Amino acid sequence: MTPQELQSLIRNTVDDTLDEYFGDPDEGKQVKESFKQKLLEIQQKRLQGRATISAAEVDKRYGIEP
């Protein structure tokens, strides 16, 4: 077994174990259509090259300390 194969095996084993232990808290839940539409609108704006707000600007606007 190569070092890369061993690394991949370990990664997959850890990933599977964490999935089994913690599970997916959102499994079986549905995304609201309005939320889905909002995400699609944001994606379209980005694809069109419209300016977005930086994380620093969001922090400043909402008084969040980095």
The poorly predicted ranges are none
User: What structural category arises from helix and sheet content?
Assistant: mainly alpha
Please bin the fraction of helical residues: 55-70%
Question: Total domains, how many?
Answer: 1
Average pLDDT confidence is 92
List the helices and strands in order. HHH
Oligomer: single chain
Tally of contiguous helical segments: 3
Q: Whole-Å distance between the termini?
A: 44 Å
The percentage of residues in β strands lies in under 5%
Number of beta strands:
0
Gyration radius, in Å = 20 Å
- What sort of overall outline do the alpha carbons produce when their principal axes are compared? extended
Descriptive account of the structure:
There is one protein chain. This protein has 66 residues and is mainly alpha-helical. The chain has one domain (3-62). Helix content is 65%, strand content 0%. It contains three helices and no strands. The longest helix is centred in the first third of the chain and has 20 residues, at 3-22. The termini are far apart. The relative contact order is 0.06.
Short description:
The chain has helices at residues 3-22, 33-47, 55-62. It is mainly alpha-helical.
What are its keywords?
66 residues, single chain, mainly alpha, extended
Q: How are the elements arranged and paired?
A:
Layout: H1 3-22, H2 33-47, H3 55-62
